[in-house]
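The protein record passed on below.

***
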Amino acid sequence: MEDNIKFRSFKNGDYETCCKWWEWWDKSFGGKGIERDWLPKNERCYIIEKNNTPVACVFLFLSLDVKRLAWITNLVSNPKYREKDRRKLIELLIEKTSEEAKKYGVSQLFTVCGDPHMSNIHKNLDWTMIPVEHEAFKYI
């Protein structure tokens, strides 16, 4: 069987699927997914699937003030997908999302890597990795 890899924007049901993944991965946060109004429109929510099985998703946020800046974040993967190509598919998701960002005129893309595995993936994709000693955010 030939592998059918598909990169696409969200369709009906994808947000709910991602919430289930967040619930599985983020038990320390009470197992809650990210509220829908914290995420971009479906056309900038991306998912990669193999043979019709969703593997991972990520979100592209465009800057409102500086059109050439954007960031990707909240990457989450299917905890049940354990094939050997998992990492390669996540890398492909990030690469394809970067290509989509270019279509919006973005020339500088940011992310926050939440763990060493994601940092390694970005480093392998030639992202500039800057060690952060002091990083902060505040919910208001």
About this structure: Helices lie at 14-25, 86-103, 116-124.
